[in-house]
Design brief:
Largest sheet: 9 strands, mixed
Shape: globular
Number of strands: 12
Structural class: alpha/beta
CATH superfamily of the largest domain: Aldolase class I
Strand content: 15-25%
Strand order of the largest sheet: 1-2-3-4-5-6-7-8-9
CATH class of the largest domain: Alpha Beta
Distance between the termini: 79 Å
Number of helices: 14
Length: about 400
Amino acid sequence: MELWQQMIRDSIHTVDQLVEKFGLDRDVAKKLDEFFQARINPYYASLIRYPGDPIWLQCVPDKKELEDVDAKEDPLMEDSMSPVPNITHRYPDRVLFLVTSQCGMYCRFCTRKRKVGDYEKISMKNLESAFKYLEEHTEIRDVILSGGDPLMLTDNMFEKILSRLRSISHIEIIRIGTKMPCVLPQRITDNLCNIIKKYHPVYVNTHFNHPWEITPESTEACEKLANAGCPVGNQMVIMRGVNDNPDVVKELMQKLLKIRVRAYYMFMADETKGANHFRTSIETGLNIYEHLRGHTSGLGVPHFVIDAPGGGGKVPIIPNYTLHHDEEKIVLRNYKNEVYVYKNYNDNNNPGTKAESKTKVKNIVKENISDVDENKDTLLNILQEVEK
């Protein structure tokens, strides 16, 4: 048994452990266990510095989860966009492929808790029907492996999936959505990286939410993936009490760049049952974005998005940097709130704008209208058209 597998076995997950380790009321702990089980592996538990800190909030069950009874279990409507089990097909050329129900640590803000941890909800029995769907739909060029966490699979099973995907000629890109570099970096072994190397291009999207998660162990994991030829991007969720602070997010993004992980997405928290106590205002997100843009490298500025409720997909949200825009110019502000004017340019490869062109035409017409009597009516018609 590998180290990471032993750490999964040693995870805190029972009601007794939650009561003993974190002081939860037993009755509350029982109800939380029924709602969404806990799994806190020894590595991630070791990052907790004090009760209620940003690490604790992400992994330790909270009675607030039980008060959130009216929210939707599937706010992104993934299930309604599942043509066959294990596949979510929302965008034209790419799909989400769920390959396991298990995770290295169960995040309390999980948007897929209706399925995660349940072998029946995400079953490996359905992989063949998923592969058949991928083979039949030639418009699919990009497959994102998710779950659960695909790196919970054994090396052998994981390679079988990669190999099968690579046998489908129209699939160009394979992406791995995994939180393992953050929550259980011991999973990123040399053997795993050697497997991944065989099936490039393979991209990795990981999920760090706080600077304390950047440790020597997670640094080594991310650098191994980068050395194996994987571009690694980070997807962060803005959460109350965890990272709803511009300085915290900037520190996280800068530390990620140092370990060769690029900012990819910064999400507003989904409207997920049991997790709405994490949600912040949109203004909080915009404020964080404003304190990144221009204040640190563009490599460290993620796309700020809302995953639209009802399955609308990712919608970018940005502060208003455009103060005015017309045919002649655009008036902009920068990160210092300094204002600049940029002249517009028409698409006919002629200098100036439509407005400027109209002015030039009118001036030419007016200058010549009295001198060329035989063309007077034509010139007047031109003038009338230009004035419209």
